[in-house]
């Protein structure tokens, strides 16, 4: 289900640094975090998202999350941009 949301999103923001920038700028509608990613990478972004009220969805796999975004590598964090 979550992967489908990412596939259907008109604009995705891939990666930790870009997601943090977008969250701080108020441009994120929802955040997706891969459970198999390192927690030291994902935890600060999850905390920031919760502080500003962005919903966080957990997905099983970095590889599948990357595939849902149309890239050939894994993605630990993907944000859907507010339209």
Q: What strand line-up does the widest sheet have?
A: 1-4-2-3
Q: If you compute it from the alpha carbons, what radius of gyration comes out, rounded to the nearest whole angstrom? A: 11 Å
> Largest beta sheet, briefly?
4 strands, mixed
Low-confidence stretches: none
CATH-assigned fold name = 60s Ribosomal Protein L30, Chain: A
Number of helices: 4
Short description:
The protein has 4 helices and 4 strands; from the N terminus they run H-E-H-E-H-E-H-E. By secondary structure, the chain is of the alpha+beta class. It has a single domain, classed as 2-Layer Sandwich (60s Ribosomal Protein L30, Chain: A).
Structural summary, described in words:
This is LSU ribosomal protein L7AE. Keywords: Ribonucleoprotein, Ribosomal protein. The chain is an alpha+beta fold and 83 residues long. It has a single domain, classed as 60s Ribosomal Protein L30, Chain: A. 45% of the residues lie in helices and 23% in strands. The chain has four helices and four strands. Strands 1-4-2-3 form a four-stranded mixed β-sheet, with helices on both faces. Helix 3 links the parallel strand 2 and strand 3. Helix 2 runs parallel beside helix 3. It is globular, with a radius of gyration of 11 Å. The model has no long low-confidence stretch (mean pLDDT 95).
